[in-house]
Design goal:
Elements: E1 5-11, E2 15-20, E3 29-33, E4 37-40, H1 42-46, H2 62-70, E5 91-92, E6 99-100, H3 103-117, H4 129-140, H5 149-161, H6 165-173, H7 180-191, H8 195-210, H9 221-234, E7 236-240, H10 242-251, H11 257-278, E8 284-289, E9 297-298, E10 304-307, E11 315-319, E12 328-331, H12 336-339, H13 343-354, H14 361-365, H15 375-380, H16 386-394
Parallel strand pairs: 9-12
Antiparallel strand pairs: 1-2, 2-12, 3-11, 4-8, 5-6, 7-8, 10-11
GO cellular component, one term: cytoplasm
InterPro entries: SET_dom, SET_dom_sf, SMYD5_SET, TPR-like_helical_dom_sf
Subcellular location: Cytoplasm
């Protein structure tokens, strides 16, 4: 069964789009995609959200996950057999001790980028150039996190290790690029008002840690800004959670009604308690670059959505409606609450975060609506920030 979707060039204003090559039914998986490169967010890792260093699979058991998020080590989860975590398969890099979910991931990381990035015995040495780079990034980019300097580091390391360097450079050049002014805006969005000074500091640290003659352009001020903007524009949030895997498995259990009600009540209460303790930060989170997914344009009435049902970096694109052959496949960059707001509010968020004005059917239909936000919207205006966008991006 050939691919159900392909990327096509639309126009210089819109760039590429993803189109159905055959009829797709509602609920169908359009494709499953692995990223060319991905990385866990740095604060997320620092706060002990333990994930495979390669595929971001959560490494804690569902019970350990719940205990940590609750701050309560005595919690016992029912149905422990529904937890999918296999600790017997976990492996560490023998030199630097980062952990992988399997021998396959350890090998894949080693072959693609880890030889260059392995800190060996310097893992806890704050003066190591890679550690200095990570520390500087954490000090500039607090949670909720939307990007990681390590995604760029893995891109460089991948090319450094590659036999066919041109193939990888071509792979990375498929991602949408922006004009110099748009790049400035994206970097400004990621780094805030101090961005010029911070970007220069990052560039110097990045150069100290990773400089490569073959990629010298990426280390110039313009090239580094472009690389930074590429990751900022195309990075897709990834979220994994052994607890949510366990919940999905429990939902599928065939139980007598009384037991079903008890289990549902237990899970509801668990999530309420976790929210009090840990807020919205439930998942192991990171970001990745996905060739096909990055071609998906936004619509305020999307016909597809992304998710990570395998508890790792494999992205599933699922149809929300029937899609006909030749039709464009669109996802939403906004969460459900944001999609319900006025056209004016939606476009304010899209312009600020993604630098475009939406012209989907819903926005065109509302084009004559007044350009004001309703009173309730005014109150909520300040809250629709990266945290919500990030939530949407990393939903599991």
């Amino acid at each position: 069964a050939g691919a159900a979707a392909e990327a096509r060039f639309i126009s210089s204003a819109k760039g590429k789009g993803l189109f159905a090559t055959r009829n797709i039914r509602k609920g169908e998986t359009v494709f499953v995609e692995r990223p060319v490169v991905s990385s866990q967010f740095l604060w997320n890792a620092l706060y002990n959200y333990r994930a495979c260093d390669h595929c971001l699979r959560a490494l804690e058991t569902a019970e350990e996950n719940a205990q940590r998020l609750l701050g309560k080590s005595s919690l016992v989860l029912p149905h422990p057999e529904q937890c999918s975590i296999r600790k017997d398969l976990h492996q560490q890099c023998p030199r630097c001790q980062v952990t992988y979910c399997s021998a396959e991931c350890r090998q894949a990381a080693l072959e693609q980028y880890h030889q260059v990035l392995c800190l060996g015995p310097s893992r806890d040495d704050p003066t190591h150039p890679l550690n200095k780079l990570q520390e500087a990034w954490r000090n500039m980019h607090y949670p909720p996190e939307t990007s990681s300097i390590m995604l760029m580091a893995r891109m460089v390391a991948t090319i450094k290790q590659a036999k066919d360097k041109e193939w990888w450079i071509k792979a990375f050049s498929q991602f949408c690029s922006k004009t110099a002014n748009e790049e400035e805006e994206i970097v400004h969005k990621l780094l805030g008002d101090k961005f010029k000074g911070q970007l220069e500091l990052l560039r110097l640290l990045f150069t100290e840690a990773l400089y490569d003659e073959y990629l010298s352009r990426w280390f110039t001020p313009e090239g580094f800004r472009s690389l930074f903007a590429l990751v900022g524009t195309n990075g897709q949030g990834i979220g994994t959670s052994s607890l949510s895997q366990w919940v999905h498995a429990c939902d599928a259990l065939d139980l007598p009604m009384l037991q079903r009600d008890e289990l549902d009540a237990f899970i509801d209460q668990l999530y309420k308690d976790i929210e009090k303790e840990s807020g919205e930060f439930l998942n192991c989170e990171g970001s990745g670059l996905y060739v096909l997914q990055s071609c998906c344009n936004h619509s305020c009435i999307p016909n597809a959505e992304t998710s990570f049902p395998e508890n790792n970096f494999l992205l599933h694109l699922t149809a929300l409606e029937d899609i006909e052959a030749g039709e464009e496949i669109c996802i939403s960059y906004l969460d459900c609450c944001q999609r319900e707001r006025s056209r004016h509010s939606r476009n304010k968020i899209l312009r600020e975060n993604y630098l475009f004005t939406c012209s989907c059917p819903k926005c065109l239909a509302q084009a004559d609506d007044a350009d004001v936000t309703s009173d309730e919207e005014e109150e909520g205006e300040g809250e629709t920030d990266d945290a919500e966008l990030e939530d949407e991006m990393t939903d599991v």
